[in-house]
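Suppose a colleague, Dr. K., hands you the sequence of a protein chain of 146 amino acids and asks what its three-dimensional shape might be. Before reaching for any lab equipment, you can write down a predicted structure in token form. Begin with the sequence itself:
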Amino acid sequence: MWTSPKVAAWMAGELGLAEVLPQRGWEALKAIGWSVQKPRPRHPASATPEEREAFKKKLAAVVTEEAAKHPDKPVEVWATDEHRIGLKPILRRVWAPKGQRPIALGHHRYKWLYVTAFVQPTLYGAILVSLVSIASCTDSTIALLD
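The predicted structure, expressed as tokens, is then:
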């Protein structure tokens, strides 16, 4: 991954100079159309493109096999994902006189919502199921998203 100091060091080596300032590396990266970006995290054991294609072929074979086992019933492939969204009240900044440690009184409570979504790739919508807590399903909502 290139950074402006790395580019400046490379430029110094290529030009036979003792040093090139990091700002010049920044300018060189901007000149070739690069921008500063935050890299997306990636699991070290994530699948390669070949492994992904093999999974897709295997999935198609399994769906075909299940459809052959149950010819009178439709076989569908669904994907699901879950997420917890919520609030843990945190007071990050307060105004206080210099030299005094501020005290922020607060009631530590947690509110959250578990959201689970089910998607059927051949449909144009998704089914969203939201549960207030994982322990009880009394307050659940099912909605069809268009």
